[in-house]
Amino acid sequence: MPKRFVVPASDFPESSRFTGDFELAEALVAAARQLHGTATPHSTMETAVRLAVGLVPGAEQAGISVLDRGGNRRTVAWTDESVRAVEAGVPGRVKPSYGEHLWQEPVVRVVDSETEEGGEPLAALGLRSALALRLRADKRRLTVLTVYSCKPGVFDEAATRIGRLFTAHVSLALESATVREQLTEAMRTRDLIGQATGILMERMNIDAAESFDSLVRASQRENVKLRDLARRIVDANNATREAGN
Hints:
Number of domains: 2
Protein name: GAF and ANTAR domain-containing protein
Distance between the termini: 51 Å
Pfam family, one: GAF_2
InterPro entries: ANTAR, CheY-like_superfamily, GAF, GAF-like_dom_sf, GAF_ANTAR, WH-like_DNA-bd_sf
Strand content: 5-15%
Helix content: 40-55%
Radius of gyration: 24 Å
Domain ANTAR: 173-234
Keywords: Kinase, Transcription, Transcription regulation, Transferase
Structural class: alpha+beta
Number of helices: 7
Shape: elongated
Strand order of the largest sheet: 2-1-5-4-3
């Protein structure tokens, strides 16, 4: 049986039927805390799909996919294997087409997959309705959060409103996690280049500026990224030291 993720009821009390804006605000705050507590973009998206099932009224499953202009789609987070099957398309049937509309619209709803054109992949897996919400978009690709239900007509205006509020938080958390990851990688790259520069200074008996210039020239000559060349030098140096011990 596919593994399902369950959001503790204490996180989202009565989340399937909010009685007012105060309860909704509390649920969104709880979701935002969990989203911003993630360490990487991938963990942010994994957390988002789990939270979506508990937060969006009627949602039973959820997934996040990346779509490109060529119509290709890749599922990057999901609560159930059937979600990945939907995105890949059922053999012999067309892939779901509702995602393509998200290039023009921030939200697309499938009321009943058994009666709507392009809904065959959902219907084949017992998913009758869907709510697709755009998370991020640029000229080349879309990132989309979609929630699913086995019942038709589940995602009404209220569910759409909550979904859009939730995806706003997801987008912010995803952007924050991406920036943190980029900064961490930049610091790692700087340290790696610094180590490689030091190794060349010692080997070639040159100063830091000359060592860095030598590294840059070698990177251009070999058509290799500076970071990758630096890693190669550091790894080779460490291997030599280990062999000598």
